[in-house]
Amino acid sequence: MGWTRALRRREGVGSALQRARSFMMLTTLLYRASHLTVGVLAVAQRRDGHPVPYLGIATALGLSVLVYGTALRRGWFDPRQVRADVLLTGCALPYVLYAWGGVRETPAIGWAMLLGGSASAAAAVALPRVQALIAVVLLVATHLAGYHLVGAGRAVLGGHLNSLLSSAAMAWVMWWYLRRQGRLLDEANARALTAETQKARYAERLDHHRALHDTVLATLTTLAAGGVDANAPEVRERCAREAAYLRRLVQQTAEEIHHPGLGAALEEAVGSVECLRLRVTAQYHGLPEVPPAVAAAFADATREALNNVGKHAGTGHAWVTATGDPEGGGGAVVTVVDRGPGFDPEHHVPGFGLRGSIRARMTEVGGRAVVDTAPGEGVRVELRWPV
Q1: How many beta carbons lie within 10 A of that of residue 205, not counting itself?
Q2: pLDDT per residue over 145-196, tens digit each?
Q3: 78 — phi, psi (to 5°)?
Q4: Which residues make beta-bridge pairs with 333?
Q5: Global pTM?
């Protein structure tokens, strides 16, 4: 599916990998901004009025805006712009200042050398490994030659070289780690989404299984047992209704039924069972307004309880009582009772109808189903919502 492919794209918008890229762009941008601040202050303090240093800092500012503005807009660095930044800002600028800017002192050229450190950090994350290594070598060569021209001491040279190499190494390690973690997180999210999709499909199949068990299978079982006349109008009407449901299911266009209320939902369930020759005495009193999903769960669980009466109780009569929860709180209680032979709960293994169609349905909407029975005492099924 389209959304699955989009999630699995390593560089998809909003992925963990893209967030890692955004973090690295912001980090190197702040690093460059700190060096540009030093450069602006150093040039502003000059008193000789020479234009080249001003042109140099303006060029560095322009390249920085181009490199990082493009990166923020597109989501990552343009390698061509990063290479240009390394060559012009990191390598050429110190020589231009020395040759045409009148720079002959170590402090006067230091701000240009600093820009080489932030250029090395960007190159380490934006360029392929070999190109990044070449960029760092060129920047190191510029530091060695530039500081030699102005007669810088070993301490200054060593400190700036350490800063240059450390900037490139730390940026590369940080980017490697964040990229690895981002990909692992994206893969974990993809697996989680796949698992959720499979879970949703299983839940849908289980819901269809329950519906078929409670309707079509119950009808066919009753017809096969010979307990009703297959040509009776009410039986044929139920068969037609269930055939329409099967067609919708096959065509994957089944619409969710929202019952107008709990009473109407229960009446529909009782009516669908009565057409199979089960007499039902139903009483409703003080029914509250409940969510459609809860009304559907009550109706489906009641229908299956009545189906069990018709199939197992050996009696043709059942009683359904529905009231508001006497404990208050807007809940409801529905009981289904028969006077059949009952069974011993301790030695009875619940079938799918009791386990999946009654108890599970009520549990899924925050309710519960309790079965009270004993040999010779009939069966009483109590449905309650909320718990």
Answers
A1: 10
A2: 999 999 999 999 999 999 999 999 999 999 999 988 888 887 777 777 777 7
A3: -90, 115
A4: 323, 384
A5: 0.53
